[in-house]
Design a protein that fits this description.
The chain has about 500 residues and is of the alpha/beta class. It is built from 13 helices and 21 strands. Helix 2 runs antiparallel to helix 4. Belongs to the aldehyde dehydrogenase family.
């Protein structure tokens, strides 16, 4: 398919970049190779992006290392001022960034605008936190010595980011790293590199020095080779990754020889519990927001809906009615609230989960098939009479399918909810304060949403337990991922 020019969609066409960004320079692949980026809503060919090689990955690491002394020697306030300027430029160009995101990722424009704002919030938050890094002067048991604890930047960092939130997953990692005084190499997903490159352009306009931010673009095959280089490098001291648990395990293994610090935000399989005393209308609204945002392609979206048997039928009826208002289509079109799945493999997985559930006795309440629009569009779907033997109750679907399972008691549903290798996000609805405390404490998840389906915020720690990962992003705790503690003992 011939490439189309998408720059006419942008107020500032210069934000459209197709080359990698190394040491402040737009860089073509050494081999001259490029890989195609397509619009998942139309399958149109929209970009040819530089397919860099492992030597260029080494060069990016070197650029980050060369920039480190100057960047970490700046005061927190100096770094904060540049980051604040970057935040202001992102906000100023929000509509163009959202348009680029919708073109390469498919999400509705209104969601893309929300993500730009959310992504920018991390830069604003950590710009302020840059001025608040503090150590300690502990009391001592020695009369002739004094003790001091310093917090210092860990060094060169790497971020490997996913396609589902192509701006926010970058800023959530890069902002605390920069604020702490670290430099960074970013490997964005091959399906959505344009958002990352536009961020780099704005960082340059903000005056952020060359080498502080480096972006490596590569196709799927070359990304594996580059990932090995990033993991093996002794210069890189920290690696942050958002993606599947399977890939997270591989990266942990590859980082082991150099004992890197890791921050891993991996797979999820979030339970969504509706207790018998819940506000049903509020629970339905929360279910729609949690499940169908980004076409169900979020790591924290609800994967299993547990509804008390006393209110099960009412909830299902209202839920089915609520999703009728979801409008599927090209995210650039007015009124669209659900875009396509990212690629054919994602569509195949959704179809496999639905077919498996129905073959094992699930009832199709709504949807259940590809949209008449064709491509990778899939109808918002609700399944009832689901049980724990179905694939959809164990595997992460990453699509717009809501399986509903009835339950009879609090102990039963907590046990069902915790029966997973994952421990990222969870949700429940109840108006009983005692039940709220007990359930929140009993759920084995790093994030618990109570009477809400939207939980992400820059001031809150984001991350999971069990096989959903290591570390936290955002909040005051997010800075600690990029700082080392140094104990200094001073003899008098």
């Amino acid at each position: 398919m011939p490439k189309i020019d998408i720059r006419h969609h942008l107020k500032d066409p210069s934000l459209f970049k197709e080359d990698a960004f190394i040491h402040g320079q737009w860089t073509k692949a050494a081999t001259g190779e490029r890989f195609a980026v397509n619009n998942p809503a139309t399958n149109e060919h929209i970009a040819d992006v530089a397919n860099v090689d492992i030597a260029q990955a080494e060069r990016a690491i070197g650029a980050a290392n060369a920039a480190l002394p100057e960047w970490c020697s700046k005061t927190g306030k100096e770094r904060a001022n540049m980051m604040r300027k970057w935040f202001e430029l992102i906000t100023e160009h929000a509509s163009d960034l959202a348009t680029l995101m919708t073109l390469e990722q498919g999400k509705p424009l209104v969601e893309a605008m929300g993500e730009v704002s959310y992504g920018a919030s991390f830069i604003e938050w950590f710009a302020e936190e840059a001025k608040r890094v503090a150590g300690a002067i502990p009391s001592t048991t020695w009369s002739d010595k004094r003790l001091m604890v310093l917090k210092q930047p860990i060094g060169v960092c790497v971020a490997i980011t996913p396609w589902n939130f192509p701006i926010a997953m970058i800023t959530r990692k890069i902002a605390p790293a920069m604020a702490a005084g670290c430099t960074i190499v970013i490997k964005p997903a091959e399906l959505t590199p344009l958002s990352a490159l536009a961020l780099a352009e704005l960082s340059m306009r903000a005056g952020i020095p060359a080498g502080v931010i480096n972006i490596l673009t590569a196709d799927e095959k070359q990304s594996i080779a580059i990932g090995k280089v990033l993991c093996a490098s002794p210069t890189v001291r920290h690696l942050s990754f958002t993606g599947s648990t399977e890939v997270g395990r591989i990266l942990m293994t590859q980082c082991a020889p150099t004992v890197k610090k890791l921050a891993l935000e991996l797979g999820g399989h979030a339970p969504f519990i509706v207790f018998e005393d819940a506000d049903i209308d509020a629970a339905v609204a929360g279910a729609v927001a949690s499940k169908f945002r980004n076409s169900g392609q979020t790591c924290v979206c609800a994967n299993r809906f547990y509804v008390h048997q006393k209110i099960h039928d009412v909830f299902v009826e209202k839920f089915a009615k609520a999703i009728q208002s979801i409008k599927v289509g090209n995210g650039l079109d007015a009124g669209i609230t659900q875009g396509p799945l990212i690629e054919p493999a994602a569509l195949t997985k959704v179809e496999r989960h639905v077919a498996d559930a129905i073959s094992k006795g699930a009832t199709l309440v709504a949807g259940g098939k590809r949209s008449v629009l064709g491509g990778t569009f899939y109808e918002p779907t609700i399944l009832a009479n689901v049980d724990k033997d179905m694939l959809i109750t164990h595997e992460e679907t990453f699509g717009p399918v809501a399986p509903i399972i009835p339950f009879a008691s609090d102990d039963e549903v907590i046990a069902l909810a915790n029966d997973s290798q994952y421990g990222l996000a969870s949700y429940f609805y109840s108006r009983d304060i005692g039940r709220i405390w007990k359930a929140a404490e009993a759920l084995d998840y790093g994030i618990v949403g109570v009477n809400t389906g939207i939980i992400s915020n820059e001031v809150a720690p984001f991350g999971g337990i069990k096989q959903s990962g290591l570390g936290r992003e955002g909040s005051i705790y997010g800075m600690d991922e990029y700082l080392e503690m140094k104990y200094v003992c001073i003899g008098l």
